[in-house]
Every structure is written in structure tokens, then in C-alpha cells.
Design brief:
Helix content is about 35%, strand content about 30%. By secondary structure, it is α/β, with parallel strands linked by helices. Helix 1 (about 5-10) runs antiparallel to helix 2 (about 30-40) and helix 2 (about 30-40) crosses helix 3. The mean pLDDT is about 90.
């Protein structure tokens, strides 16, 4: 499946109908999800690999990894309601693509801090830390404990880049690359004042050194 086909498929999946503001449950745009997954695939970090999505939400990254031939995919989220949507989305993706991916996907209802594993790749869109300061840090530290390669999306600030790079190095990782993208968030909550907002985000591509 090429990047454009993947983007189209992911765009047809269901969003979370009842996002929780305290969990910052913003669905990753389908074009951005496809871009990140394609990068990971071209780097040899998806096909035939065990891939985890920490805070998988409705499952776009998780399902995309399965469609790009991951050996096994684990989606972890603390919210059982959004995992039910992710389960529906697996079925939708199977119908759209005629690929049987459900047998390679496992959904786990658990706080990411309570999950332990040893996997090839983590691809994640953690909370940006807008509602709860530094919420993304705890996802990143868990990823560094469990994966050899990490693709992690964070809100773009120059100070944050410096801080996160230091945090990654302190936890045994090396930043291979940082790529800046746009992240479009539609109107979702009462405090939103516009039909949508666009934020700059950084994709950190990380290797674990130990």
C-alpha cells in the first residue's frame, strides 16, 4: 500500500465521538499519519516488525502499521470507549482494503505507565501537554524503555526541542532526526473558538542506544 492509498483509507476511519479533554484525545490527521508511517516503513521499521502505538486512540497509526505489513501491532489506551472505536476501525479498514489485519492487532486497555514490553518500533502521537503539563514526557520515557526505534510526535517549541533531546539522551536514546509538520485540529470542545486550529509539531525519530 503506497502513502496516498494509506492516507485515503485512514481518512475513512471513525474519529472518537466523545473525546476527553483531559486526555487530549486529538485524532491525528490522516495525511500526517500516512506521512509518518511511510517514513517508518522506508526506514525499515514497520514491515515484519512488532509495532506499538502508545495512546492509540481510534487507531489510525496502529491500523496504518498493520496495513504496511507489520508482523504484530499493539494499541494501548487507558480509555476503553475509544478502544471500542479502534476495534470498529480495524473492521472498516479490512473491508476497505480486503486485508485481514485483525489477527495481527492486539488492543490493550491500560495506562501506558503500567505496560511493559520489548518491541521493535513505537509510533505514537502522545498528548501535547497543553491540559496537563509535560504529559508527553511520560509517553516518551516509556517508549525509550520498550522500543529500539521510536517515532514520537510533540508540539513544536524551540525550548521543548532542547529539553526533549536532553531527556532522550538521559534515557539511553539518540535523536536521529527532527522533522517539523503541521497538525490540524478541528473544533472539538466548547473552549475552542475557531472551526479548526493548526499547530506546528515535531516528529522525533529516535534510536535506543542501550
Amino acid at each position: 500500500m503506497n502513502k496516498k492509498q494509506l492516507e485515503i483509507t485512514l481518512s475513512k476511519l471513525k474519529d472518537n465521538p466523545n473525546p476527553r479533554v483531559e486526555l487530549e484525545q486529538y485524532t491525528i490527521p490522516s495525511d500526517l499519519a500516512a506521512e509518518i508511517l511511510n517514513l517508518a516503513y522506508l526506514n525499515g521499521d514497520v514491515k515484519g516488525k512488532v509495532v506499538v502505538d502508545l495512546g492509540c486512540g481510534s487507531g489510525r497509526l496502529m491500523i496504518g502499521a498493520a496495513l504496511m505489513d507489520a508482523k504484530k501491532v499493539i494499541g494501548i489506551d487507558v480509555n476503553k470507549d475509544v478502544l471500542a472505536i479502534a476495534k470498529e476501525n480495524v473492521k472498516i479498514a479490512e473491508r476497505l482494503t480486503n486485508q485481514e489485519i485483525g489477527t495481527r492487532i492486539k488492543l490493550v486497555c491500560k495506562d501506558v505507565s503500567d505496560w511493559d514490553g520489548n518491541v521493535d518500533t513505537i509510533i505514537q502521537n502522545p498528548p501535547f501537554g497543553i491540559q496537563k503539563l509535560h504529559a508527553d514526557r511520560h509517553f516518551l520515557q516509556k517508549a525509550l524503555e520498550c522500543a529500539r526505534k521510536i517515532y514520537s510526535l510533540h508540539r513544536h517549541y524551540e525550548k521543548s526541542r532542547i529539553f526533549l533531546k536532553k531527556l532522550i539522551e538521559q534515557n539511553g536514546g539518540k535523536v536521529e532526526k527532527i522533522i517539523k509538520f503541521k497538525f490540524k485540529i478541528p473544533y472539538m470542545f466548547k473552549f475552542h473558538k475557531k472551526p479548526y486550529a493548526i499547530y506546528d509539531v515535531d516528529l522525533f525519530i529516535i534510536s535506543r542506544l542501550r
